[in-house]
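Example record used in the benchmark description.
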Amino acid sequence: MKANLLVVDDEPITRQSLTDILRLEGYTVHSVPNGEAAVDFVRMYSVDLIVLDLRMPGMGGMEVMRALSQLSQDTEIILLTAHGSMETAVDALRHRIHDYLLKPASPKQVLESIERGLTRRAVKLAQRIEGTSELSDFSPHTVQFSDGTVVDTARRIVERGDAVVQLTLSEGHLLKVFVENPGRVFSHRELILLVQGYEVSQQEAQEILRPLVSRLRNKISNFPAIYDHIVSVRGTGYLLDAIV
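Model output (C-alpha cells):
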C-alpha cells in the first residue's frame, strides 16, 4: 500500500504541481494551502509524510513542525525553503525533520527524499515493535548508543563512563546532524548549509568539511560507536552508518 502524503504550500501552482507528481507515483496525496489547515488535517487523518513549505502567511512551517511534534511524532517531514539559514536549519533538526530541501527542488530530489523518509519511518516503527533499536532517545537532546556512549546535542558533549569530550559549536552541529539522521547520506553542500548556515560550491564545501570532520573524528576517537561509523561517501558526502 502506498503512503499517505500531505503537501503544504501557499503557492497554488507549486502545490498543485507537486501533488500531481506524487499522485503519478502512486501515492495517496492531499494538499492544503496553509499551516493552520495542515494541523487541522493531521488532527483528523493519519499522515505518513508531509512536504512542508517554510514561509507561509499565518502559521509558518516552523510553527507547524512544533505542533506536529505533539500531534503526530511518527509523521516524517520534508521542509522546503527558498531561504536557508542557520537558525531555521538548527531549529528544524531539533524537531527531527527528515529532510531540508532548498527551492526550487527538482522532482527527482523530492521523490528520492520521500522514499528515504518513508523507509526511515518504517524502520522506526518496526524497531519500536521489536524493541531492537540500535539508538534510543532518552531526552529531547540526548542520544544513547548501545555501548553506552551518550551524545548530548544541546550541551555539545559526548561521554561514556568517565570519558567526556566537549565539542565546538560547528563540531556539535555536525555531530547532531549525523546522530539524528543515521543511515542518511548528506552531500557536502547540504552539510555546510545545515552546520554553517550558508551555501557554497561543491568544491568549497569539500574544502570546508574536510578539516571540520577531521577535528570531530579526533575528538571522538575514544568513542568507537560513533567514530567507526562516520563514513565518507566518495564524491558525495558523509553519513553516520550506525544502524547495522
